[in-house]
Amino acid sequence: xxxxxxxxxxxxxxxxxxxxxxxxxxxxxxxxxxxxxxxxxxxxxxxxxxxxxxxxxxxxxxxxxxxxxxxxxxxxxxxxxxxxxxxxxxxxxxxxxxxxxxxxxxx
Amino acid sequence: xxxxxxxxxxxxxxxxxxxxxxxxxxxxxxxxxxxxxxxxxxxxxxxxxxxxxxxxxxxxxxxxxxxxxxxxxxxxxxxxxxxxxxxxxxxxxxxxxxxxxxxxxxxxxxxxxxxxxxxxxx
Lengths: 107, 122
What we know:
The complex is a heterodimer of chains A (107) and B (122).
Chain A: E1 4-7, E2 10-13, E3 19-25, E4 33-38, E5 45-49, E6 53-54, E7 62-67, E8 70-75, E9 85-90, E10 102-106
Parallel strand pairs in A: 2-10
Antiparallel strand pairs in A: 1-3, 3-8, 4-5, 4-9, 5-6, 7-8, 9-10
Chain B: E1 3-7, E2 10-12, E3 18-25, E4 32-39, E5 45-51, E6 58-60, E7 68-73, E8 78-83, E9 92-102, E10 109-112, E11 116-120
Parallel strand pairs in B: 2-11
Antiparallel strand pairs in B: 1-3, 3-8, 4-5, 4-9, 5-6, 7-8, 9-10, 9-11
């Protein structure tokens, strides 16, 4: 199985900050990679698929990049509603494993 | 409105069985692959199982192979997860998720239900 490792596990930031979350796959997954956002008590929400394509309705302050084994999620200017937990996921092969999550908290 | 509504969770003893259901509405259910993803209390997401739109192709994480069965009834717009020989480590909130691609699963989930809680305990 492909292991996905996110860093950091938690992050404190302020409204307006630029934030980057990284995810590393245990083997090359090309661009078969997604990011999800989950708020407390809610289901996950697809943010970015195929590494860099924004899901419909997702603000343009979110962006994704990478290929192979290393991927990043960038939020250009944090908004209050962005404080949540973010998960990466590989879709290269089943099981479609997720990273352990990055909890983004208000500083 | 596109919606997924899970049901069937509850408290079950180790070794017991449960069947989860996921009722879909607002889209052509029979055209899309579907999956189950679970989340243990306070933990991250774990992909569990996927099923093609026809039901012919199934996929499982190793930890549930031979114990869980995913299937669907396209005439009822419903996805199921039959869970047998349940263990304490199966305790989790189980989400039903719609694949963004038609026919075969690509593992990208654009619609999620709210989840149904399964607790395995004596």
